[in-house]
Design goal:
With 212 residues, the chain is α+β, with helices and mostly antiparallel strands. It is built from 8 helices and 6 strands.
Length: 212
């Protein structure tokens, strides 16, 4: 029957996650092998990354916070680049580079994000303020508003826009209630602007955390 796997999607304290990564035994190895294949060098590298991003989060927000670990791989796109969001066909393959996210839920609508890399400064936003006083009847009409367009232009491609996209889209899908924010730390090894979907990985990781 093989070794047991860890249950994905679990919330644990930062301390509990670190203990599990240090002492997970066969269950941890089985889970990581399912994800990365039987490559001990890659698994050891990813373990170092998980520990580093958890330590970074713990120093910022406390080691007793209950958090979720999220990963989103980069991809090689062989055809149809950037058209899937319009219903087009794509041919993609996941790669072993990824974005890793540690996130803890908040009781308000503030999203605070940081990155282990100094090139990506910490920032926060409030979901409610992002959608205040603009039409919210449909997603495209929201995106076409002058205020929204101006905010995008003035941010000069700031990395937080990819996090905002996930949270605001989820809020649009759940218009009957206000979703809550998160405290989060990102870490990634996907080369930026290399055609490997580093920005999409941030969106996907953010969406997974927001949904959780």
């Amino acid at each position: 029957t093989g070794p047991k796997r860890l249950t994905p999607g679990s919330f644990r304290t930062v301390e509990e996650w670190l203990s599990l990564l240090n002492n997970g035994g066969n269950a941890l190895h089985a889970t990581l092998t399912d994800i990365y294949g039987d490559d001990s060098a890659l698994i050891n590298d990813r373990l170092k990354t998980y520990r580093a991003v958890l330590e970074h989060f713990g120093k910022l927000h406390g080691f007793d916070r209950r958090v979720i670990l999220v990963r989103a791989p980069g991809r090689v796109n062989l055809m149809g680049r950037h058209i899937e969001h319009r219903g087009g066909s794509v041919n993609v393959m996941a790669i072993d580079k990824e974005v890793v996210l540690v996130a803890a839920p908040r009781s308000d609508d503030t999203v605070r994000v940081a990155n282990t890399e100094g090139a990506f400064p910490p920032v926060e936003f409030r979901i409610g303020l992002e959608i205040a006083d603009v039409p919210w009847d449909d997603w495209l009409s929201y995106l076409s508003q002058e205020r929204v367009q101006r905010l995008v232009r003035e941010s000069h491609g700031h990395w937080v826009n990819y996090v905002k996209a996930a949270f605001l889209r989820l809020q649009f899908q759940c218009r009957d209630r206000r979703i809550t924010g998160m405290d989060a730390v990102f870490c990634g090894n996907i080369p930026v602007a290399a055609g490997l979907s580093s920005s999409s990985a941030v969106v996907v990781a953010s969406a997974e955390a927001a949904a959780a």
